[in-house]
Fold this sequence. Notes:
alpha/beta; eight-stranded mixed β-sheet; three-stranded mixed β-sheet; 21 helices; 13 strands; 16% strand
Amino acid sequence: MSAEDLSLHAHKKGDAKHSHRKEVSNQNLLLIALVLTLGFSGVELAAAYFAGSLALLSDAGHMVTDSAALGLALLAQFIARRPPSAKHSFGFGRAEALAAFVNGIAMLGLVVWIVIEASSRFFTPHQVDGLTVTVVAAVGLLMNIIVAWVLSHDKKSVNTRAALVHVMGDLLGSVGALVAGLIIQFTGWMPADALLSIFVSLLILKSTFSILRESYHFLMEGVPLHIDYLQVGNDLKKVPGVLAVHDLHVWEMTPSFPALIGHIEIERMNDWPQIMSRINTMLLNKHGIDHVTLQPEEAGGIDEHTHDASLNDKVNTANSNQVNHQGDTFYVECTSPDGPHRMAYHAWGNPSNPKVLVCVHGLTRRGSDFKTLAEAMCGDYYVVCPDVVGRGDSDWLKNPMLYAVPQYVADMACLIKQLRVNQVDWFGTSMGGLIGMVYASMPNNPIRRMLINDVGPRIEPEAIKRLGSYVGQPFSYSNRAEALQRLNEICASFGSHTPEEWEIYNGPMLSQKAGVWGLHYDPDISVPFASVNPIMAKAGEMAMWHAFKQIRIPMLVVRGGDSDLLSAKTVAEMCKQNPHIRSIEIPGVGHAPAFVKAEQIALAKEFFS
Length: 609
């Protein structure tokens, strides 16, 4: 890695004092233990063969397994000492816990084999040379005591302790073999060999299970066993200046190095350095946590995403309980990989109403699509209809490849944060339905119930071809009437409407620039759409089905009876895959029902009531 890369892993003043590497482990201890164990295991295997002793063989087997366990532990410590990299920013400390877990599993397998073999020999005893067993077991006992003493000097590493369990199993095996040898030598009772093997194997199970439990807990990023998670949260709340704590997580990045992340609400952001200093001191002294990452949030302050500065009068009015908006336009500041941008949204109803309905339009449409629906719903809801970025009054993006659902979902999250509500209902037409499905599949999302208007995880190829025939294509007319007539023809599948309804629905789609009438959206919204190949389309469909299956809220999917985008087969599959959805079909309409007709609006009001 370059010097610049390595600087990413460095800790500066105020950062946690831990090292990403496992510094308490002693590789020399494991190396000494490995040499002693591997050397003697060969001697014991030969002796077991000539003496015919299962107890001696089980002890030799333990030692061979121990040699492998010690080798694995030693390799894990070499790996754990590797510095962090661009792909492993926390380093490789988890390699030790992984080795401990593998060693524990291997020990269980060895115990099972010995018990099965010993049970067989108990009923059909084999001739055993008691003197050979006694002598070799005594030497093995002495050697195992030395190895155990060496490993006991490193008590902090779960990896070394896992290897020590193996050695303690060997030590007990040597004791068992020694006792079995003495009994056979002086009494001639051969079943003692099998009985002592079973007894020794069962003795080591408790330690093996302990190592497995601890290493598994660590690998699953559990709260460190010596830390009380609830007490940590309570202590954080008691720190002067802390108003609230949420999104708190405690785990171990590497064994013996606990870490903590979370969000802290404070009264004034200027006080944060002093508050953070108190938190660091408390966590280190009381809980032994020195890797702390906390995000401060100013309670009761202005959200970072605020109304546009030029609209302050509207913002102040929006906070009044007496105001009812009638399509007023506001803005929310959003971000993308290319920088900040504004998304416009249009509002109907009382902004103090806690019941909020978010209506999101289709690919080439804008928030004004929902004007008629919003006017009908604003008595019960505060209705918010955004212009998705690249459309209507919203900004256009510099990078057209960002015109995609992930960016749209992020923008909607910014919008809902600005609205300061915990729950919203969602009406999504076509693309707006896809945005809603992805958003609703995410953990802790705010959507309470959702109407999905003529879209599903699978989009029919015929519809994709139709959309490609006009999305982003040249559209310019010298007079508005001609432009509106052409747009009405493109939207004929939306249903049969009166000229007045078409004016309300399609009129806002037209904009005049330099005396020419064109469409409101950035033509580049077609770039990601046109770049999709069959493989990408299939991958996208699989991802949408996965997201759809995660949704756990009431849903209503509305299909136009003649829709070429959402097939009846897809609707049936949606109802089969998710028990929270029901469906309805509107005859005589293609893609997508406009919800300007009274009967369609009544359908939405019934679902959201």
